[in-house]
Design brief:
The complex is a heterotrimer of chains A (388), B (219) and C (654). With 388 residues, chain A is mainly alpha-helical. Chain A has 22 helices and no strands. Chain A has a domain of 88 residues: Tetratricopeptide repeat domain (Serine Threonine Protein Phosphatase 5, Tetratricopeptide repeat, Alpha Horseshoe). The model of chain A has no long low-confidence stretch (mean pLDDT 92). Chain B has a 5-stranded parallel beta sheet with strand order 2-1-3-4-5, sandwiched between helices. Classes of the chains: A mainly alpha (388), B alpha/beta (219), C alpha/beta (654).
Chain lengths: 388, 219, 654
């Protein structure tokens, strides 16, 4: 269906899209005063209440939207997320995600959330099936990987879970972002023309970093080569080369360049990062990766992911208590760090803290689903009369 | 001497000669460098030399890649041992009869195996007689009994009674699970020698048991 | 200014002069009659039972176990359906069950709180078959029948010594009311019905003024004020709203006492519903939570505490329960009758509480208060009713972390007793409140107000000495640069990843800028106004803490808030009497004539040692339950605390 939306609703939508929560809620109520049976308004209100973490209100509004139009898919999304974020409503949550997965079968999040709801209700097999289905749709879905790692931990222990956690971490774009943050690149993408790069070391290395971020490994390597031709002992250039090799799955070349870099600058974060990641790929090098990541966390303590990498290497050494401290440091720096949340969940499970582990998984879902912003995609598709 | 050998290893990489590389490793190993140190003392400096040669343009991209392939091939010779050495200590474990909780047990079993313990995991819902039977069968002197609910936690006393009845007071009985973590007195009352609160505490406690009670020897 | 670090003292040897020990040898009661610990004793313990099995079990055995655990009070729930199966016909067999309860209570010296109208999901206590599905809360005929039932019971047992109080209804029942008027009418009629036959025993309404409002939109304060006792009660939905997260650390460990403080007005308040809401907590977590809630109650002026449930509910073997919407699942003994670790906590707590004779020890007065804005009572679409309680809880926690003895008041209530006020992130205050604030500060009080978004009242300029230029909107990073070190405590510059919903653009028009953002826009100002100080924070900091992740607030942000709160309270004479180096350790200081008692509670699930510094030299420290006093001979001493640990210490000075 694609009923006409009232002008008041459009105002509310505009305010909501701009993140102006109180004003958008007020506009929704004005829209309801005109027509209190408009599913769009209730769905939007459900989303807004969810944004404010007011779950009971979100549940009420989304339920109302679904009652008015059982095909209102964005309301199902808001309702399912509200149940999950509120906690303790797994039976209802399973129904909602199951319904949404039927209606929008390629909606990855529905399968991930369905799996978490199943897991919380102790239906482990159904949970694993849901996450596997999510990975069929999107092999890079990090949270499905993390959840499978937790499931593996529960039955096979940390030695099975840790490689999965690390694999998921490498799929997670935040790990690459850490490297570029360590490199000092600005967070936002900058358009630049390689032809205009100044013939200076710093400009070339900056440009190489930007090209690496765009996965132009050859372009980056050319610039790094020029810098190394001028000074083969340039630690920064060697570290960039190491990262470029790492991204091309050339672990030994990466290791060689990173080790060389560290002979000139022993605590260079970019080189430490690459070396640590290479080491962590070899189970026998747990102690080595821990040593490197300890140095990285010390040299770049402001980045949450450095603590996560350290924590994971500590898990490999069975030093779970220290891993918990490192994960907590990561969460304090970035509460939205999904990888740290799952890591904490894993550690808490080794300590018998099931409730807290469950909570960490829920928080990971909270931040991940907020970041994804699926609501507007589904809402717009619903407005156009189709599925998301 | 090792730094010289690192140069030799590097040269073997660059000349794409894995057999020579292996010879270098074996030579260094036979000179007394333990397996745990080969990576740091030999492989790392060789790889650094390789990186330096590439950075200085002494070898080109193709040679660098081929040398890395050789490094990959001999990697298993220099890797520290993956698993920790066998402790020689056998541990029998399981969740007590009428208790179906297995998560903590599975996690701890895996952690102990990884740390070199010989783990006999009897699963969940294990009767006292089964613990005893497996202890006899394996000659183990350590048993870990898991219980996550109060009623089953109290029933762990039955395992100790059984051990006493069979003159197996030499067996170290450790307990794990929420009720014991909440009330250390409960562990004492069921005749436990210690409480495992987490996977890490299991490792620490087993380490102490191994040293203090078993004298580090196998059992 | 550099200060000499006080030297920490350790235990040296038993003191020769054992005043405290001698006193502890005095006969101590098993329980504290001024702080009874009670328990809700529900009629059914197995899900497969039916309404007709109401209290059809061995009550005496349970009561014996309660008495052994030093429990004093038991709340029992009347089943209208069981007692009056047909109109006007009362079932003597059911009445006999009630009498067996009374007999057991007398035998074991327990006191009963009889609750007339309660809902527990299982026992269908109010579903009289002849009621024809009319609403027992509003239907005049049914209310008349309720009055008859109440008067019959009260009259029959008006001289029954085991009955301590009459409870008109529990929160689950009262959540069915849709208006204040209906609730107040019902309470008035029922209360009068009791009073006609029993002029003495207190009447209460077992609802929490904050949680019921949140649940139903009905403000029950008027109805509560018709009674003689008040109740605070953390419900499962309220926990999910205010502080959803782990129960042994962070905000969840402060929520019971926050509600208690918010419920404390003119009537004595009992903290009800102590216990976890879900089945997925371990026995250790249950015990830690119960310990925290019990001590929090004692440390924050409660008049007693009630446990959520006596015995775990035996559920059918079907899909697992994970939440407890009617709060009937988790007790302090398990389904087999075995005491859980939580019950051992209760017994230990009661032993400590028994040493706190209110005639000898008085809790240090609170001279600082968190103010709940009046806008909290506005319905949607105003979001103030949703934001403000969360912001107020965070303000309360910040004050606790600064070890400031703190009360909770509402806008419009009398402020005269306080020297410092915290107004956390209100979007708007009433004109009357602005006038009150002006008078308060002029008279020497100190105020901390954080910007709540939108326009501000012109009084801001006068009282706080800042010119408001507009709201610069949300920010992703919280930056602080200290312009005036030391002015509001040991503040530090920082950049933290934290979303701020608003940021007020200000210029100082008389105020001193203490800290700014990264670009020099004032963040923290202090203004001398009359004899007092007015501190303005340019962002809704408490709301931001609540709306981000209160379990993972960046360390420097928490440090900023508690430093400002603590410094303002201290300079206003409302600060802590003693210092403690651990923010998440709460201290209640009970002042006595010869000695003081300190209750020290860790809100942290890790082991810790709190270092306390007192203004006077401490002679000895001793566990209130006895033991050898330790000599200190200094102003500083360490107190080791386990995970969520407590210490109850008798301190003498010399």
């Amino acid at each position: 269906m694609s009923p006409a939306r009232s002008s008041q609703l459009l105002i509310a939508e505009d305010l909501a899209r701009r993140g102006q929560l109180p004003a958008a809620v007020a506009a929704c109520y004005e829209a309801l005063a005109i027509n209190d049976r408009d599913p769009f308004v209730h769905a939007l209100l459900g989303h807004l209440m969810l944004e404010g973490d007011f779950y009971d209100e979100a549940i009420a509004a989304s339920t109302q939207a679904i009652e008015l139009d059982p095909d209102c898919s964005p309301a199902y999304l808001a309702l399912g997320l509200a149940y999950d974020r509120r906690g303790g409503m797994w039976d209802q949550s399973v129904l909602v995600w199951h319904e949404l997965a039927e209606v929008v079968p390629d909606l990855v999040i529905a399968h991930v959330q369905l799996g978490e709801a199943f897991a919380a209700a102790a239906f482990e097999e159904e949970a694993v099936d849901s996450w596997k289905r999510a990975l069929e749709l999107d092999p890079k879905e990090a949270r499905a990987h993390y959840n499978l790692a937790i499931a593996a931990l529960k039955h096979e222990g940390m030695s099975t879970a840790l490689p999965t956690i690390r694999r998921a971490g490498e799929l997670d774009p935040s790990q690459d972002e850490l490297f570029f943050a360590l490199l000092g690149l600005p967070a936002e993408q900058i358009e630049f023309d390689i032809a205009t790069v100044k013939p200076e070391r710093d400009a070339r290395l900056f440009a190489a970093g930007m090209l690496l971020r765009g996965e132009d490994f050859f372009g980056a390597s050319d610039l790094v080569r020029i810098v190394l031709d001028e000074n083969p002992a340039d630690a920064d250039a060697l570290a960039l080369a190491a990262y470029a090799y790492l991204k091309q799955e050339a672990s030994n070349e990466a290791m060689a360049c990173a080790l060389r870099s560290l002979t000139f600058s022993a605590d260079l974060p970019t080189a430490l990062y690459t070396l640590g990641v290479v080491y962590s790929r070899f189970p026998g090098l747990s102690k080595h990766s821990a040593r490197v990541f300890i140095a990285l966390a010390k040299s770049a303590p402001q980045h949450s992911l450095t603590h996560v990498l350290l924590a994971e290497s500590l898990l490999g050494l069975q030093r779970y208590g220290q891993a918990r401290q490192a994960y907590r440091a990561a969460v304090r720096l970035d509460p939205a760090c999904v990888r740290a949340r799952f890591g904490l969940a894993a550690v808490r499970l080794t300590e018998g803290g099931y409730a807290e582990a469950q909570w960490e998984i829920r928080r990971a879902a909270y931040y991940d689903t907020r970041r994804q912003g699926n609501f507007w995609r589904m809402y717009d598709a619903y407005a156009e009369g189709g599925d998301a | 001497m090792v730094s010289e050998e690192a140069t030799h290893l590097y040269e073997a990489f660059v000349s794409q000669d894995p057999a020579k590389a292996i010879q270098v490793v074996e030579r260094v190993r036979s000179s007394g460098v333990p397996q745990t140190q080969l990576f740091d003392s030999l492989f790392v400096p060789a790889m650094s030399l390789l990186g330096g040669a590439w950075a200085e343009g002494r070898i080109d991209e193709i040679v660098f890649t081929q040398a890395s392939v050789v490094a990959e091939q001999i990697g298993s010779f220099v890797m520290p041992p993956l698993t920790r050495p066998d402790t020689g200590v056998t541990v029998v474990m399981g969740s007590i009869h009428r208790d179906r909780h297995g998560i903590m047990k599975d996690i701890i079993a895996s952690a102990l195996k990884e740390a070199g313990y010989r783990v006999n995991d009897l699963g969940v819902g294990v009767r006292g007689a089964d613990f005893l039977e497996r202890l006899e069968e394996t000659g183990a002197r350590v048993v870990i009994v898991f219980a996550e609910i109060l009623a089953t936690a109290r029933a762990v006393a039955g395992v100790r009674d059984l051990l006493t009845a069979e003159n197996r007071d030499d067996v170290v009985m450790l307990v794990a699970g929420g009720p014991f973590a909440a009330d250390p007195g409960l562990a004492r009352s069921v005749g436990a020698n210690g409480v495992i609160a987490s996977a890490e505490s299991a490792l620490k406690l087993l380490g102490r048991v191994r040293e203090d009670l078993l004298g580090g020897g196998a059992s | 200014m550099a200060t000499k670090k006080p030297q920490k003292k350790t235990v040296k040897k038993p003191a020769k002069q054992q005043t405290g020990a001698a006193k502890s040898a005095e006969k101590v009661p098993m329980r504290n009659p001024d702080f009874p610990v009670g328990v809700d004793y529900y009629p059914l313990d197995e899900e497969r039972r039916s309404w007709s099995d109401w209290y059809d079990r061995d009550v005496a055995a349970d009561f014996a176990q309660m008495a052994a655990a030093r429990i004093s009070d038991v709340r029992v729930f009347v089943s209208w359906r069981a007692l009056e199966p047909q109109v006007g016909q009362y079932d003597e067999e059911a009445i006999g069950r009630l009498e067996r309860i009374m007999e057991a209570a007398r035998t074991h010296d327990l006191k009963l709180i009889v609750c007339f109208f309660a809902d527990d999901r299982l026992a269908e206590m109010n579903e009289v078959p002849w009621g024809k599905r009319r609403d027992a809360r509003t239907d005049d005929y049914l209310i008349q029948r309720e009055i008859s039932l109440v008067q019959r019971i009260v009259n029959r047992y008006r001289s029954e010594p085991s009955i301590k109080a009459w409870d008109l209804g529990n929160e689950a029942f009262c959540s069915g009311f849709e208006t204040e008027a209906a609730l107040e009418k019902w309470v008035t009629e029922l209360r009068e019905a009791v009073r006609e036959v029993d002029p003495d025993r207190p009447v209460l309404l077992g609802v929490d003024p904050e949680t019921l409002l949140r649940e139903t939109g009905v403000d029950p304060r008027g109805a509560i004020d018709l009674c003689e006792r008040a109740w605070s009660h953390l419900t499962a939905p309220y926990r999910a709203y205010i502080a959803e997260g782990p129960v042994t650390s962070g905000p969840a460990t402060y929520t019971d006492s926050f509600l208690l403080r918010a419920a404390l007005r003119d009537l004595p308040v009992v903290v009800d519903g102590i216990g976890v809401h879900a089945l997925d907590f371990s026995a250790a977590e249950e015990a830690a939570y119960v310990r925290t809630a019990l001590y929090s109650a004692l440390m924050n002026r409660a008049s007693g505490a009630m446990l959520r449930r006596w015995r775990d509910l035996e559920t059918e073997k079907r899909e697992p329960y994970f939440r407890d919407p009617f709060e009937v699942l988790v007790g302090v003994i398990d389904v087999t009758g075995t005491p859980k670790p939580a019950l051992a906590e209760v017994k230990r707590f009661a032993a400590v509480a028994a040493r706190l004779d209110p005639r000898r020890y008085a809790l240090a007065p609170e001279r600082a208060a968190v103010v709940i804005p009046a806008e909290r009572y506005e319905p949607l679409p105003s979001l103030a009713g949703l934001y403000d309680p969360r912001a107020c809880l965070q303000a309360y926690i910040a004050a606790k972390e600064a070890h400031v003895p703190i009360a909770v008041v509402r806008e419009g209530e009398t402020l005269g007793a306080y020297h410092a006020l915290y107004l956390p992130s209100p979007a708007a205050l009433t004109a009357a409140m602005w006038a009150d604030l002006g008078a308060f500060v002029q008279g020497g009080g100190s105020v901390v107000l954080s910007y709540g978004g939108g326009d501000v009242d012109p009084a801001l300029r006068e009282i706080f000495g800042v010119e408001f230029l507009g709201d610069s909107g949300p920010r992703k990073t919280f930056s602080c640069r200290v312009a005036q070190p030391g002015m509001l405590g040991d503040l530090r510059s920082f950049d933290a990843r934290m979303e701020l919903p608003h940021y007020a653009l200000l210029t100082a028009s008389g105020a001193t800028v203490v800290a700014t953002d990264a670009n020099g826009s004032p963040l923290l100002t202090v203004n001398q106004y009359g004899q007092g100080k007015a501190v303005f924070i340019a962002t809704p900091i408490e709301r931001a803490i609540a709306q981000n992740d209160p379990w993972a607030t960046p360390t420097p942000v928490r440090h900023l808030v508690r430093t400002v709160y603590g410094t303002v309270a201290s300079s206003a004479g409302a600060g802590a009497m003693l210092e403690c180096d651990m923010p998440d350790v709460e201290i209640a200081h009970f002042l006595g004539e010869d000695d003081d008692i300190l209750l020290i509670l860790s809100h942290n699930a890790e082991k810790t040692t709190a270092t306390l510094t007192t203004p006077r030299t401490v002679a000895t420290v001793q566990d209130v339950r006895g033991g050898t006093p330790a000599e200190v001979g200094g102003k500083t001493f360490g107190v080791p605390l386990g995970p969520n640990g407590v210490a109850a210490l008798r301190v003498t000075f010399g």
